[in-house]
Amino acid sequence: MAIGPGPTAGPRRASTNAPWLPGCLALLAAACINTTEEPPPSGLETVDADEIVYGVSANMSREGIREAILSADSMFSWRDSAHARVMGLSLVVFDERGRRRATITAEEGRLNRIGNELTASGNAVLSIPEQGREIHTEELHFSLEVERVWTDVPVVMHEGGCVFEGDRLQSDMDFDDVRIWGTRERGCS
Questions:
Q1: How far is CA 110 from CA 44, 85, 178, in A?
Q2: Distance (Å, rounded) from C-alpha 14 to C-alpha 83?
Q3: Phi, psi torsion values for 85, nearest 5 degrees
Q4: Residue 51 contacts by C-beta under 8 Å, 6 or more apart in sequence?
Q5: Which pairing describes strands 162-166 and 179-181: parallel, antiparallel, or unpaired?
Q6: Are the C-beta atoms of residues 163 and 116 closer than 8 Å to each other?
Q7: What per-residue string of b and e applies to 110-136 under the rule 16 or more CB within 10 Å gives b?
Q8: Who's near 81: CB < 8 A, 6+ residues apart?
Q9: pTM to 2 decimals?
Q10: How far apart are CA 82 and CA 116, in angstroms?
Q11: Residues 6+ apart with CB under 8 A from 143
């Protein structure tokens, strides 16, 4: 007597008479999808801009004379607004002879394209190499029209091996008259 499947037997298949199978699959799928909580933040947000430009370089001029160059990783603009949002920005400020006066860097900013004004925010740094100054703050305003740079939030200035803290800052465009209110010396090296 032979043992094993007969000549008409084929491959074995799973039984489709398992009424509990669809319910188990639904429970497994529900366990994998959590609809009660928001997903963790990714660091990126959706921006509904009319125009997005990457690798931006723009001249900022007054009366036809270039006074600064704005470079940014990206710029978001809207047709119904004179403002644009810039990310990863660097602003190089020039004197009347075209020499670099200062540099402002920040994580992001808001650019007023009509008035040549920029608000740099997120680890904003004003670097004035000829004076050996570097000023750190969370928000820094730059305006060609009123010829000044300022902030109303706390600042930390590094100068000549010394560190100073202050409550706010204002400077002219030549960076000859840099004023910091509420100055406290943190120490010198």
A1: 17, 5, 23
A2: 64
A3: -100, 130
A4: 76, 77, 78, 79
A5: unpaired
A6: no
A7: ebeeeebbbbbbeebbbbbeeeebbbb
A8: none
A9: 0.73
A10: 10
A11: 115, 116, 117, 118, 149
Torsion angle of alpha carbons 189, 157, 121, 54, nearest 10°? -70
Domains and CATH numbers, the chain: 51-188 (2.60.450.10)
State the sign of the Cα–Cα–Cα–Cα dihedral 174, 179, 180, 183: positive
| DSSP per-residue letters across the chain | ---S--TT-------S--TTHHHHHHHHHHHH---SSPPPP-S------SEEEEEEEEEEEETTEEEEEEEEEEEEE-TT-SEEEEEEEEEEEE-TTS-EEEEEEEEEEEEETTTTEEEEEEEEEEEEGGGTEEEEEEEEEEETTTTEEEESS-EEEEETTEEEEESEEEEETTSSS-EEET-EEEEE-
- 77-124 per-position pLDDT tens digit: 999 899 999 999 999 999 888 899 999 999 999 999 787 899 999 999
Rounded Cα distance, 156 and 115, in Å? 28
pLDDT tens by residue, 113-164: 787 899 999 999 999 999 999 999 999 999 988 889 999 999 999 998 999 9
The residue to which tokens 């009347």 are assigned: 96
Report how far residue 51's alpha carbon sits from residue 155's, in angstroms, rounded to the nearest whole number: 34
